Amino acid sequence: MQERILILDFGSQTTQLIARRVRELSTYSEIVPYNKFPEDTEGIKGVILSGSPFSVYDEAAFKINVAQLRGRYPILGICYGAQLIAHQAGGTVESAGSREYGRANLSSYKAGNRLLEAFTANSQIWMSHGDSITSVPDTFETIASTKDVPIAAYHIKGEDTWGVQFHPEVFHTVEGTKLLDNFLTICGCSKTWSPASFVEHTVAALKQQVGTDKVVLGLSGGVDSSVTAVLLNKAIGKQLTCIFVNHGLLRKNEFEQVLKDYEHLGLNVIGVDASQRFYDALAGVTDPEKKRKIIGKGFIDVFDEEATKLSDVKWLAQGTIYPDIIESLSITGTTIKSHHNVGGLPEKMNLKLCEPLRLLFKDEVRKVGRELGMMPHLLNRHPFPGPGLGVRILGDITPEKVRVLQEADAIFIDNLREAGLYDKVWQAFVVLLPIKSVGVMGDERTYENAVALRAVSSTDAMTADWAHLPYEFLAKVSNEIINKVKGVNRVTYDISSKPPATIEWE
């Protein structure tokens, strides 16, 4: 039985951070929509209620009957979660007048409280709410305050239910990890979850899920699908057939290099060159969502055709990870961008879906890969989108544009490796812009393409900062691209962070 902390997502932008912090404390966490409490409750040791963009008084606010959970599990309400618990118990939640946002300090503590055990005096926290709890029932006890918030944290007497009006999951709450660790202790968690335990649990689960059925896996050459393949191979061996599709939108020489890389893994891999098929389907298409859907459909069609050639295939495996799920559809129903891995499968395919990494973040996937004994150069590859260069060519896609981008991207990546910078950034690539600019090469006027270099630092792709690469390095890359790539006469560097931008341009 795997222990887990269940996180009910009420739409907070930092819900995923709660999950990460809990996992960093060697405890498995699982995020579910606020109104989708799982029927299978085995292993649940405690429940965390996330924050929310809503007030408890909003008609559209996400609400559950917290009383149905109280007493069954230890509960921690964070921000909106704390306000919802208090409001439903008869407490008062009122508008703070102005939004309480930013750093604050806990100015008083109730002695002996377990949630804030070992906290230091005046510990810094991070507030982000428009409402405040102004009164609580007699069954509640206030365990911490700030200068402006009398009820910054509370405990319900006689039960393991707690609420905090600040965000322990964010970096600016200095002892937030300690608070979450204290909550895990209250829950009685053994804190033994690790990449090794994940592999053991997942291999067993895959054997049970798949049984003796055959599985086809779409390899992309990236970390996620590679780890998925090795994990499945460990669980079901020769029942797995991997298909690596060249959609014509891979990086320079990647099709051949990836097939060679997989030799040491002992995988059964079929390489399919479908470049022209994808170019034909994408001809004249400029909308990024349409491009993603066309490429996603193309993948599924190829898989369907290849799977038909195999006998008795029942499952399609994919390297979907948690950021894919989050960005495809938030709890509020707002799509940021679609991912071909989570776009749904057409009925004609008639295959069940297997996604063993869907609740892991990218850094966790790499740790699992190391546990499986995979080679570092496979695990340390920068993330690469399923639609490939199709979402790094802004505007319509042609074989010539792909050539230009492949050449420019290869120069950027090769220089990063040579300068010892590749492993110091999370992701780096080149974007081909849908504009041309005037330039001078020799004594001649040129009117050619502009490209943008993009390099970011991150830990999980949920947030990212632009990488502060040395000016001398950028100058060298720019000169080399302009001198060696026919069709490019201008290079720019993207200094946007996520949010508000995304890592990919499309």
Describe this structure in words.
There is one protein chain. With about 500 residues, the protein is of the alpha/beta class. It is built from 13 helices and 18 strands. The chain has helices at about 15-25, 80-90, 175-185, 195-210, 225-235, 255-260, 275-280, 290-310, 320-330, 360-370, 375-380, 400-420, 470-485, and strands at about 5-10, 30-35, 45-50, 75-80, 90-110, 125-135, 140-145, 155, 160-165, 215-220, 240-245, 270-275, 315, 350-355, 425-440, 445-455, 465, 490-495. The chain has a 9-stranded mixed β-sheet with strand order 2-1-3-4-9-8-7-5-6, with helices on both faces. A hairpin with a 7-residue loop joins strand 16 (about 445-455) and strand 17 (about 465). Helix 5 packs across helix 10, helix 7 (about 275-280) runs antiparallel to helix 8 and helix 12 (about 400-420) runs antiparallel to helix 13. It is globular and about 80 Å long. The model is unreliable at about 330-345 (pLDDT under 50).
Q: How would the blueprint of this fold be written?
A:
Elements: E1 4-9, H1 15-24, E2 29-33, E3 44-49, E4 75-78, H2 80-88, E5 92-109, E6 124-135, E7 140-146, E8 153-156, E9 161-164, H3 176-187, H4 195-210, E10 214-219, H5 223-236, E11 240-246, H6 254-261, E12 269-273, H7 275-282, H8 288-309, E13 313-317, H9 322-328, E14 352-354, H10 362-371, H11 376-379, H12 399-418, E15 427-441, E16 444-457, E17 465-466, H13 471-484, E18 488-493
Parallel strand pairs: 1-2, 1-3, 3-4, 4-9, 10-11, 10-13, 11-12, 13-14, 16-18
Antiparallel strand pairs: 5-6, 5-7, 7-8, 8-9, 15-16, 16-17
Helix pairs in contact: 4-5, 4-10, 5-10, 7-8, 12-13
